[in-house]
Amino acid sequence: MRKSLPLLLSSLLLTATPALAKNPLFEHVFTADPAAMVHDGTVYLYTGHDEAPNNDRFFEMHDWLLFTSKDMKTWQEHGPIMRATDFGWAKGDAWAAHMIERDGKFYFYTTVRHKDDKPGFAVGVAVADSPYGPFKDAIGKALITDDMTTHTPNDWDDIDPAVFIEENGDAYMFFGNLVPKYVKLKDNMVELDGEIKTMNLPNFTEALWVHKKDDNYYVSYACEFPEKICYAMSKSIHGPWEYKGILNEIAGNTETNHQSIIEFNGKSYFIYHTGAVPSRDGKPSGGRFRRSVAIDRLYYNEDGSLKRVVMTSEGIQ
Ligand code: FUB
Prior knowledge:
42% strand; five-stranded antiparallel β-sheet; four-stranded antiparallel β-sheet; single chain; mainly beta; disordered N terminus; 3% helix
């Protein structure tokens, strides 16, 4: 006998096991552009904060949020650590950022939109004595402004900073949209030390992230559009970079993606964002301007190359 729809639904509800979905990580707030840092046994997850009223127009991002975890499963929320307009020279647009520690100070490199005296997107740097802040503008001006690079006519081609410190202490900042770039930083972490160089990375869009394991350097980045995450490997921070292919497929319901790769307690993790939060309680669902951070495991092959990420709804169990 065929069941009526209400009966079918109620029997399904009675027999279904509650889903323990852990990806995306948070549903009560939209989070994007994860920038994770491991420090003193804790994972600090800094995220952008999508506040667009819907998925029709564009990003609305005012501040950056912080979540921490000691097991990658339970997360404590610390709220906003900084607003884009805390940089007195910035108009707003708290886009992708990166946190790194050096000599007990925490440097927060951010994408923001510059005021009209130097129009376009810019990179700022803030500093604090603690990973929780309070963060203040480290130099009172932008570290990178749009007029410093002329590789594309776009005013958003200097975005998405990611900093890597070599074992010998040399620090480099990677950034860019459509043209990947990097520049050495002085030991004080807040001044450029030399010229901005370009990199050769196939299908590059944005969201550079550099990490090292054993004697291999890895650069991962958002490629094509809609964005997948691709990666390349090298034996030197200066390249040449050998393109290795797709690391993660289009993450679902958003054209952008942005990854962090960390190692924590002997395991490697791939942290990214999706548009997968469903509509609940009459609120608009996730999507391209209402993104949400997710985490899955990252595995290496014996030759050091990376296995393609398997995105899960369970997340880290
Ligand atoms: O979140 C705004 C921008 O979208 C970021 O800067 C890019 O990486 C992309 O995720």
